[in-house]
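Amino acid chain
________________
===
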Amino acid sequence: MNAEDVLASAVFHAADVCYSVPGYPVTDLAEKCGSEYTVNEKTALEYALGTSLTGRRAVVIVKNAGMNNLADPLVSATYQGIRGGVVIIAGDDIGVSGSQTRQDSRFYGDVASVMVLEPDAGQLFLSVELAMRSSETYFRVVIIRVTPEVLHAEVSDCVIPERKSGTGTLFPENLTMKGRCEYAENITAVMKGDASYQQVVPDTFASRGHFRTLCHTCPYKPLFAILKKTLSDHNISAISDTGCSLLSQNPLYGFSLANYGLGSSPAVAAKSTKIALTGDFAILHSGLNALLDIFEKGESLFCIVLQNRKMGMTGGQDCPDILPYLACFHPSVAAADDIRLEKMIENGIAEKNGLKILIVFGECPIGEKHETIPC
C-alpha cells in the first residue's frame, strides 16, 4: 500500500476540511485529500484558523517554501489559542527535485513554539489524529513534516486510529499582550515537559491596572459603539486585525473574537464569524490576496475597512489610498460620522451572499495616543 494513500486516509478520518497550495512533493497528497486550493499559504492557514474557531478540525498541506508565507499566522496562533485542531502537513523537498531552495520545516517548531512530528512511512496512519489531539491539548498548530522518501514508500495494511476530537480554547480575554505571551510560555513548558520552568501568573488588565483604547478624539468611536451594540444584538462577534481594530477586543468594546496577525481577519472571518474588522494598511500589507480568494469562491463575508490613510499603531506613517485597489469589489463608502452607518452595518450583517466591503474613512488625530483607562 502506498504511504501517501495512507496519509490521505488519515487526513480524511481526523480532519473536517483541508486547504492547500499545490507544490512538490505534496501536490498529489493535496489532490487525494480533496483540498480546497487557496491563493497563497497564508490564506490557507487563516482559513484553517477560522474553521478552528467554529470547533471543526482543519489540515493545511503545503511544500517547504510555503511555510515561509504562512509563518505570521502560525506564530500568532500560539499566542491566541484555537478551538478545533489545526495541523500543517509540510512537504520538504530535500532532494531539490521541484524547488528553488532546500528548506527544513522542522525549524518552524522553534520559531512558533509548536510541536513537530516526523513520522516514518509506517507511522503515517497514526500521525494526523495524534497531531490533532496535540493541537487541541496545547491550543496551537501542530506540524507534520514529510519527505518524498516517506510519501512514496510502500507500507503494510494499517488501521487508522479512532477519532477522538477534543476542545481547544482561546486565551482568556483579560490578558494583556505580555500576559498572552506568558500564558503561551506556560503551556509551551508543559508541552515540552520542562520541569525546570517556573510557571508565572500571566499579566492581566487588572494586575497591570489599566487597558488601552482608541485615542480621545478618534473618529471611529461611534463606529465601534455601533458595532458593539449591533453585534451583541445579533449574538455574533467580529474577527479583528492587527492595528487599531485590535482595540475592539479590549474593554470598553469586546466585540472581537480573535486576531491571528496583520492582514488575517478577512480569511479567518470568512470561515467563522463572517464579520471582519480591519485597517487600510492591513489590507494592503497582506489581506488583499485573501479578499481575492474570497471573492472568486463566492464566500460570504462582510469586511469593514477603517481607512485613515495612516499606520496608526506605529507612529502615524502615511498609507496609500486603498480605494483604487478595492474598486473591483464595488465597496460601499462612508465617513466615520455618517448617520447611515448603523443601517449600513445592519445590511452588511444581513446580506450573506458573497463579499461585501464597507470602507469607513476618518482622519487619524495628530499627536494623540491611545487612551489609557484605569481598571
